[in-house]
Amino acid sequence: EVQLQASGGGLVQAGGSLRLSCAASGFTRDDYAIGWSRQAPGKEREGVADILNNGAANYADSVKGRSTISRDNAKKMVYLQMSNLRPEDTAVYYCKLSYRGLDFWGQGTLVTVSS
């Protein structure tokens, strides 16, 4: 069973930084994509960033230039370093692992950015 445990959320002031972490377990392969999506109150879930096993990364325009995604295949971890946070970044951030058309989701971690 694939499990994704996200952590690192919290309350931060606008302009601050946070590092989200996600630990994957129950999955032995490395050829998967993994990343982050977020859902703000009253809004649909949106993709934030994802990274392939070769290190190629994609970012939503809303976080591009302010966020860096990275992964450690040996530890089965993925990280999202976010800086210059804005109140509109407030959301529950979910870790997602994608493999051959299947998506697996973690439970989410709340990021609140105060103005």
Task: Tell me what you see in this structure.
The protein is mainly β and 115 residues long. It contains no helices and eleven strands. Strands 2, 4, 5, 6, 9, 10 and 11 form a seven-stranded mixed β-sheet that branches. A four-stranded antiparallel β-sheet has the order 1-3-8-7, with no helix packed on it. The termini are far apart.
How do the helices and strands follow one another from N- to C-terminus?
EEEEEEEEEEE
Strand content: over 45%
Structural class: mainly beta
DSSP strand tally: 11
N/C terminus separation: 40 Å
Shape: globular
Count of individual helical segments = 0
Helix content: under 10%
Largest sheet: 7 strands, mixed
Our Rg estimate from Cα atoms comes to 13 Å
State mean pLDDT (0 to 100 scale).
96
Low-pLDDT segments, ≥5 res: none
Task: Chart the SSEs and their pairings.
Blueprint: E1 3-7, E2 10-13, E3 18-25, E4 33-39, E5 46-51, E6 57-59, E7 67-72, E8 77-82, E9 91-99, E10 102-105, E11 109-114
Parallel strand pairs: 2-11
Antiparallel strand pairs: 1-3, 3-8, 4-5, 4-9, 5-6, 7-8, 9-10, 9-11
Précis, in short:
This protein has 115 residues and is mostly beta strands. The protein has strands at residues 3-7, 10-13, 18-25, 33-39, 46-51, 57-59, 67-72, 77-82, 91-99, 102-105, 109-114. It is built from no helices and eleven strands.
